[in-house]
Amino acid sequence: MVIESNEGGTESAMTVLDRQGAFSGQWLAAGEKKIAPVPAGSRTDDSLVRRITEGCRTAGADAVLVIHPSAGAIAPADSLPPADPGLVSLPADLLLVAANLEGAVLFPGPGYALVAGTSAFLAGAAPEGVDQARARFARYARAAARKWPALESTARSFPPGHIAWKYPRDVPEATATGQQLALMRDVAAGRCTGAEFAVGWLDARRRSQQQGERVRDPLETLLDRVFSLLEDYSIDPQFKEPEDLSDDELKNAVIELLRKAE
What we know:
By secondary structure, this protein is an alpha+beta fold. It contains 10 helices and 9 strands. The strands form 2 sheets. A 7-stranded antiparallel sheet has the order 1-4-3-5-6-7-2, sandwiched between helices. A two-stranded parallel ribbon has the order 8-9.
């Protein structure tokens, strides 16, 4: 493992935090960054490291700056490739910053971490969406309250901004999730091709996540099943494999899912 001393990186990365050790309002405002609390143990694990790794990938950062906030700007940062195994099993009091400052993971103590960044960074670091991550963290905080009672206060500091829709009828038409459902009805009725449906539905799914829209069962399961169908469907005919779904098979599967849901 090669580690570079990065004193300049330390100085710039420390602007991510304010004097209280929280994310700086000025840094958050640049690029309209959002924060999602996530579960953690006593040390970084594969799940937490995956968030910074994927965030760097989607935000175009080629390195992670590893900082111990309590040491201040005196100690130089370690600059590691995002996939470096040295990121695993690090203790709390840790700030992992994408080298381009698009996002960061703050691990202040055992039990939780805060993932913050631009929409590009969060597309990889919090693919479930900020609101979904916040809702899941609230459930986790209640379950872990006996071990880490302070987690519930953290959860209250980051409430979800959207109601979680349960049924297709609950979803406003103007939302990205509403567009996903509209496209499902269109392909079921033969108003669009399988490829048009796949492209539009996946784009609406990305927008739904970026906008923090939330769903819960049974609607969550419905949308997950459509996503699974599209993983077995080739948009470009030249890349189609024998086991991939045909347009008719995709259409019939969506019809059946809608029949059960509506």
